[in-house]
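2024-03-11 09:14:02 DEBUG pipeline.ingest accepted 1 chain
2024-03-11 09:14:02 DEBUG pipeline.ingest length=352
2024-03-11 09:14:03 DEBUG pipeline.predict start
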Amino acid sequence: MMIEALLQAEPSQVRLFHVRLRYSDDMDSVGKFALRKVWVLFATILEVWRARYRYRTPMLYYPPSGPNRVPVLRDIIFLCATRWMFRWTVFHYHAGGVSGYEAKLPRLLRPLFRLAYRNAAMAIRTAPQNPEDGKLLGARRDVVVPNGIPDARGTVVERTAAPGNPVVILFTGVLIPSKGVRVLLEAFRQVVGQGANVRLELMGRWGDEAFHTECMHFIARHGLQARISFLGVKRDQEKLEHFAGCDIFCFPSHFEAESFGLVLLEAMQFAKPVVTTCWRGIPSVVEDGVNGFTVPVEDPGAVAERLLQLIGDEALRMRMGQEGRRIFTGRFTLERFWQNMEEALTLAAKPL
């Protein structure tokens, strides 16, 4: 999403030439080996070679994978085959933690890992709390560029719970344990047990059928069927309507490659308070006690406590939501992202 956003920019000091990485068609295939991907990898390398000579660009901009074997091996092949052609390499770490993966590789592959990832001209992180992959891999410069999204406020109707109606809690993301779904369901059970008038909506697709079955059994066992809705994947206007129509956004993620959490911005733009985790770059977006609450990972009791605090205090929800809106417009708009990225890419080409 952020690469697509970057390509929409019209920078005055940088020209962008895009070679698309087409390895995965959907979330099911991300991080998994397939013969088709081998062909795509080598076709992409050839396309980069062709683009390098056609446009004479001296800089390679690349988003390294997270700490997962198949994508790391793919990166090693791709980078060893392309980096030598460019004067500068800029790594944009949208996923975090790859710097620690070298020790997990067979010894014969470790020199290739270092050849692929080390000594970039610049490493870009999305938040200061994220792993310092660039520094650990010898990048000459390390900068932080927060993500940003278009401001969609005003394009859909915003709603909040009327007196006597249930408070709506929204989660958005892939429905897997490390995104906090199991934690959220247990926290919601505790909230309902305290007598709160609430409803939970989960927007996204299931990661696997076994976890889907587990969650359905949990919901049935505790009699929560009437209070929980699974919305599936929503896009564009439909997605925005659910963000604008909730009262609280809850995102208790501890996802292995989480580095920022764009969904937090999507809630904040509509002035929604957030309950989330102290994980990776999330605290750079949600300031505890200001525009929401951050809690320890995998702690459903802490999630439930903060949800109950917001459910019982409409004024607090409004105040934190407005603070979130203020933080969003000041730091996380698409225009600010474009400006920061142009400054970073320009800086990467300058001598130290």
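2024-03-11 09:14:41 DEBUG pipeline.report The chain has a mean pLDDT of 95.
2024-03-11 09:14:41 DEBUG pipeline.predict end
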